[in-house]
Amino acid sequence: MVEEVLLSARGLNRFYGRHQALHAVDVTLRRGEVLGFLGPNGAGKSTTMKILAGVLRAHGGQVEICGRSLSDDPIEAKKAVGYLPEVPPLHDDATVDAYLGWCARLRGLPAVAAHEASAKARAHCGLEDVGSRLIGNLSKGYRQRIGLAQAIVHDPSVLILDEPTSSLDPAQIRDVRELIRTLAAERTVIVSTHILPEVRKLATRIMILHHGRIVHDAPAVSETRVLRVRFREAVDVGSLTGIEGVLIASAEDHGAWRLEVDDLENAAVSIAERAVEEGWGVIELQPDFDVLEHLFMRLTTGDPPAGKSL
Amino acid sequence: MTEAMRAIAGFEITRSLRRPFSWVVLAVAQSFMAVLFLLLTVQFLGLNAHLQAQGVTRAILIPYFRAAALLVVVVTPMLTMGVLSSDRRDGKLDFLFSAPISSFDIVAGKLLAVLSFAGALWFLAGLIPLTLLWGAPIDLGIYFTNLLGLALFVLLHCCLGIAASAITRQPVLTGIAALIVSLSLWFADWANRLDPASSSLGTVSTLGRLRGFAIGFINSADIVYFIIVAVLFFSLAVWMVESERQWA
């Protein structure tokens, strides 16, 4: 079943003076999707997220949130958006309860509902014990969680999170990851981060932005379809792609190969059998956990790997 | 008033009350007015026949309210300097932009918070001269016109401070800018005195516009002046905030 489109952006352009920061960026997200939004610093990620959150105006293009145009009906469209900027917008001289209640009221909830929503968001983000504490007295981890709580306090359909796990310890990162997964079941979530393993664990789709242009937009590639192998003897590309189940072979440093395969287990068996037959001497044969990093580097540094590329 | 305006104003007031700076400003301003009132009263009670002939209203009330207006010129930039500029600097304005509220709501909410605080100053400053009622008859008509003039003066300066705060990201710079504009508007009246032909400068002087209120005379042109200038500064602030969304 095709899920409902919750966010649709078409042809987004944005200028800073004469510099064009975004070039016709398109984003379409459906319910249940978690978009891993990647790109080097200065690629235009934050600008794109700010436009999608209604913080900045696009100088070209259209954004629709749950079918409502962000430029024609901004008030209603923004009610469906939760936004966590890179630096959480916290007020140190407010208590956690007062701040979250205020955020809920700003998002259009009446006072009583705002109080309930604030309590629910606190519970979601593990902030039950610090409700009456001043934000300025809390640790970075707590502050990040308060930032996340303000983004979800009004139960938005679209969540835009810029570096949601920065400043968190490993246990908190795991909790936030679980929270985002839970939230994504009924929503759509955009997560921007530089931590590639985080994206790998969370995202159902990957978008890479470079110099303001989308250079990759596709469902997340399963790492269980890429093998990394190394042989004692020299092997050529043709020999590897000739093995049953091997689709693409790319040479890497130190005689290693990255092989995209149709089925991990069957391909591994076929490669091992061929290596024994040919006397290649297998030194390494394992799933490749660097698919995303490889893709990111290739697209953003213009440095394609040797051999046949992915 | 929208829910968003109420929410912003309420939150800002709560935060102000947590800051020692707000209480210090209130205390210093109130102390200044109390000491000034005491000095004027002592001066009146001395054997100065010229002052006594003017009556308590002219000798104490009118100079007291003029000094209160000058205090507003100095204190309002302190209250308004961080209102929008620090939010812009710290990225908190981005958060407000992401909420389903207009730039008008944001500026109006902030203005309401500043007006509440400045309103407390105005109210307390207005209470002090009433102590004269225990010992001397004061002209309550002149008292209320002075109070009205001071209220309009406070409104104009709060809007001016908010507009200055919307222009840059540096609170101190916005405070200085607001103070310079306030003093310029105040002293524009002097140009009129030095050269009566330059009446155009005198018409924009806040001091000149207060003169009628000081002597118990309510001129609708003066009321309209304060309201129009306040609305202009408020509109400038809304426009600057909206520009931030467009061109930041």
Structure description:
With 310 residues, chain A is an alpha/beta fold. In chain A, 34% of the residues lie in helices and 28% in strands. In chain A, β1 and β2 (19-30) form a beta hairpin. Chain B has 248 residues and is an all-alpha fold. In chain B, 83% of the residues lie in helices and 0% in strands. Chain B is built from eleven helices and no strands. The two termini of chain B are 28 Å apart. In chain B, 42% of the residues are buried. Chain A binds chain B through residues 50, 53-57, 74-79, 81, 83, 85, 87, 89, 91, 93-94, 98, 102-103, 105-108, 110, 150, and chain B through 3-4, 7-8, 10-11, 14-15, 18-19, 90-92, 94-102, 245-246, 248.
Query: What is the string of SSEs of chain A from the N terminus onward?
Result: EEEHEEHEHHHEHEHEEEHEEHEH
Largest interface summary: A-B, 29 and 25 residues
* N to C succession of SSEs of chain B: HHHHHHHHHHH
Estimate the mean pLDDT confidence of chain B. Answer: 88
Determine the number of helices of chain B (DSSP H or I, runs of at least 4 residues).
11
Overall geometry of chain A comes to: elongated
What kind of sheet is the major sheet of chain A?
6 strands, mixed
Q: Give me the count of strands of chain B.
A: 0
Q: Helical proportion of chain A?
A: 25-40%
Main pleated-sheet profile of chain B:
none
List keywords for this structure.
heterodimer, A: 310 residues, 10 helices, 14 strands, 28% strand, B: 248 residues, mainly alpha
Write the layout of secondary structure elements.
The complex is a heterodimer of chains A (310) and B (248).
Chain A: E1 5-16, E2 19-30, E3 34-38, H1 45-52, E4 60-65, E5 68-69, H2 74-78, E6 81-84, H3 96-106, H4 111-124, H5 140-152, E7 158-162, H6 170-184, E8 188-192, H7 196-202, E9 205-210, E10 213-219, E11 226-231, H8 237-241, E12 246-251, E13 256-261, H9 264-278, E14 282-287, H10 291-301
Parallel strand pairs in A: 3-8, 3-9, 6-7, 7-8
Antiparallel strand pairs in A: 1-2, 1-4, 4-5, 9-10, 11-13, 11-14, 12-13
Chain B: H1 3-18, H2 20-45, H3 49-80, H4 85-90, H5 92-98, H6 103-127, H7 140-167, H8 171-194, H9 199-203, H10 206-214, H11 220-247
Helix pairs in contact in B: 1-6, 2-3, 2-6, 3-6, 3-7, 3-8, 6-7, 6-11, 7-8, 7-10, 7-11
